[in-house]
Design a protein that fits this description.
Blueprint (H helix, E strand, L loop, with lengths): L1 H19 L3 E4 L10 E2 L15 E7 L2 E6 L5 E6 L5 E4 L10 E8 L5 E6 L8 E6 L7 E6 L13 E3 L6 E5 L12 E5 L4 E5 L14 E6 L2 E7 L2 E8 L2 E9 L5 E9 L2 E8 L5 E5 L7 E6 L14 E9 L2 E8 L4 E7 L3 H23 L1
Antiparallel strand pairs: 1-25, 2-25, 3-4, 4-5, 5-6, 7-8, 8-9, 9-10, 11-12, 12-13, 13-14, 15-16, 16-17, 17-18, 19-20, 20-21, 21-22, 23-24, 24-25
Helix pairs in contact: 1-2
Amino acid sequence: MKKSLFILCIGLLAGAPAMMGQVTITPLSGFSPNGDGWLAPGEGGYGFLGTGNLERGMAFGNDHLYLVSRNGGSSIRILNKLTGAEVGTLDTTGITGGTFAVNQISVGGDGAIYVNNLTTQSTTSPLKVYRWTSEIAAPTVVYSGDAGLAGSRVGDSMAVFGSGSSTRLALGYGNSPAVTGNNGYTIIDPTAGTATAVAFAGSPPAAGDFRLGITFANSTRVIGTQGSSVYRDTSFSGTTGTLLSNGTLTSSAERLLAYAVVGGVPLLAAQSNGDSHVSIYDVTDLANPIFLTSGNATTGTLTANGNGTGELAWGDISGDTALLWAMSSNQGIQAFTVVVPEPSVIAMFLTGAGVLGVSMLRRRKS
């Protein structure tokens, strides 16, 4: 009886991951002129979305999708979240400087919009971060400086956490030029206008490990990657960074990252800069990500994303459902609906297994 009970419980527990595998990612019907969930480069005559490595930043907030484009000059396009149609642009008055004057974008919990430039040498060409308090406001410079690490490349990636005076931005350093400390990231306080370089003793993280993908898990926990299927899970306090674990993704081409909690489950979305597929992982344990599902709304031959740039954005999270937008440079924007099975179903399943086990033991004793 004990052996049978053991086998039964193991079988029931083994079924739990299979239930989590029911997570679905479905192209958002109605997104793009074709309504197929993929706004392809140039589709519908959209000149702001092309194949010239000119679009690298995207974010969701204020019920809109934002796209940073350098096609024909610096611009931040406002898109309808459900169709991808352009509905306006942000004021870019006074935006100057940097290798690229605009590059990445994030939206705080209060709706404030942040855009950074890209600098390949932060001493001679400072990192700049701009803020729009609303879509009709003019931008103001909330940070200008060397990003806490003189001479660094910074601005290829950016993430945001918090709102108001608690807002913090994380930007990963690049691996070239070779500057001591470029295996970490900078934390920008846009209210104080300061930048704090987060340093790690030893390696990993390796130089540039937060350059192509960066996301917050909470206010002091940052996840980043440069590729090769490995991401770094870290925490920081002041200038000190701690490597907590190394997670492995299913594809070495998955570089873009975005973290969210949907249906009570911590999820990490990752996008390939190769075929543009998007994978969803359960990261309840960030050291051991569990692949759940993947989706891809693109078709045909894609223009290569040789720089590995782009961005993912979660939004409209309600209960067990969320929207997810994915933009790999030169490969357009995809929109998905992600649905997670209710945790209560899994809990009931496991609780039922426990009740059954206790019942069988009692019957055995009697």
